[in-house]
Structure formats: C-alpha cells, structure tokens
Design goal:
This protein is mainly alpha-helical. It folds into two domains: about 5-65, no CATH class; about 75-120, no CATH class. Helices cover about 55% and strands about 5% of the residues. The chain is built from seven helices and three strands. The protein has helices at about 5-15, 20-30, 40-45, 55-65, 75-90, 95-105, 115-120, and strands at about 5, 35, 110. A three-stranded parallel sheet has the order 2-1-3. Helix 1 crosses helix 2 (about 20-30) and helix 5 packs across helix 6. The chain starts with a strand and ends in a 12-residue tail after the last helix.
Length: about 130
Amino acid sequence: MKVLVDTSIWSLALRRQKVVSGESAELVRLVEEGLVSIIGPIRQEILSGISHPKQFEVLRSQLEPFEDLPLTKRHFETGAEFSNLCRKHGVQGSHTDFLICAVASLEKTSIYTSDKDFHHYMKHLPIVLHVPR
C-alpha cells in the first residue's frame, strides 16, 4: 500500500538532519521501497517559511524526485465533507489535514504522520494511519 507522507514526517527527515529519528528511518525505508506519495499542499507546507534561498533550493531539490498525486475536485469536495463531519463531532482541523484524509481515503493510501490530530480524525473518517515497522 502506498503511504501519503505528511508534512510533520518530511520536516523531521529533511529539516532536522542532525538527528536521525525512528520517523526518518521509516521514511527512508518507504522511499527505498517506492511507497511514498505526496500532494502539492504538503510540498508547499514543507517549503514554506524558509528564509534562506539556498536552503529553500536544497529542500526543493530533495523533494524533486517525488511526483505529486494529481488532485481533482472530488478530493477537495471529500475534504470539505470530512471537515464538516468532524466538526459535527467537535473535532477541529486544518483544510490541508482534511484534504490529506480525503486523498488517503479515495486513493486507498495510509497516512504517515506524527501529528496527533489524525488520531482524532480517524475516529470519524475512513482513514488508515501508517504504523512504522
């Protein structure tokens, strides 16, 4: 099964390279097995907030090999539905988080994240979180 890797994991692996965490090691394993998926909004989050152009270019080149999954209006509409459903149950989240959930659900991928909010989402949404081996 493909794995949609969330910003939190990419950030741990790419921005904080001095510390090799379990999350980073798992990402390397997923990359080696060709299981990694990414979407444009995650790419944008990863690249946002970098003040040094050289650092931005290094990060952009590290992400270059990964093609974005194409997004359609169905992904965005499902993301809105998921947001509404979670709000109905008192669970708040970002638009990007619900888009990630929608993509994962529709494309039958798991989500690899260190963001604890996804544990709340999965109580109400048809998503699967990736469990590192």
